[in-house]
Amino acid sequence: MVSEENTSKAEKAPEVSERHQQRMQKLKEKVDARIEAAQEDKGLLLVLTGNGKGKSTSGFGMVARAVGHGLTAAVIQFIKGGWECGERNLLQNAGVEFHVMDTGFTWETQDKAKDTEAAQRVWKEAKHLLSDESVDVVMLDEITYMLTYQYLDLDAVLDVIAQRPPHQHVIVTGRACHRHLIEMADTVSEVNNTKHAFDNGIKAQKGIDW
Ligand code: ATP
Ligand code: MG
Fold this sequence. Notes:
Elements: H1 4-37, E1 45-49, H2 55-68, E2 73-77, H3 86-93, E3 97-100, H4 106-109, H5 112-129, E4 137-141, H6 143-148, H7 154-162, E5 169-173, H8 179-184, E6 187-190
Parallel strand pairs: 1-5, 1-6, 2-3, 2-4, 4-5
The structure holds adenosine-5'-triphosphate and magnesium ion (MG).
Magnesium ion (MG) binds next to helix 2.
């Protein structure tokens, strides 16, 4: 049996549905207008920073997305060498060029001269890619630390990024991104650390953390 309350709800339903339709129509007009207004095509500088998990995986996601559309992409990995990397295994097979600094973490090498030399060596590869018209996407994974520790000169990095081919997208990842790089970027996402399994003594998981 239909209760009185339910009957009155059912009677209101067409009205509710009409109001919803009108609201959605207004929203659609707004979204369509914004899409219409966004006409520019340009190589983007994207920054993924913050203390939460998901910066490099997001960058690799965009590289995979680009490659899926037939674009050319290359990845420079600052810091993490020696480590297996699931995305590298996959994307190298899909034709993505990788250059890895290969010194391990700064707090492991504890050798500033060696780290600086390694950063400079891999930055040379990055500079080639950032001047190569045939490369559509360049990911500079963990480059923010190179700037924090001054293994690379900030102005030199900003200059090379600014002078890159106009259609080329650049993805920067790493914590504590320098504000000048953030100012220069078109899209900046800060991933916050709400919680992380590691804090509860759970070790890094293959396929999730590397
Ligand atoms: P991912 O590569 O998983 O996207 P990320 O690039 O955001 O992570 P990094 O600072 O580069 O983060 O750290 C890489 C490794 O450290 C990953 O194994 C990741 O799970 C782990 N990690 C990231 N954020 C945290 C955190 N807040 N606490 C502990 N471990 C973290
Ligand atoms: Mg990372």
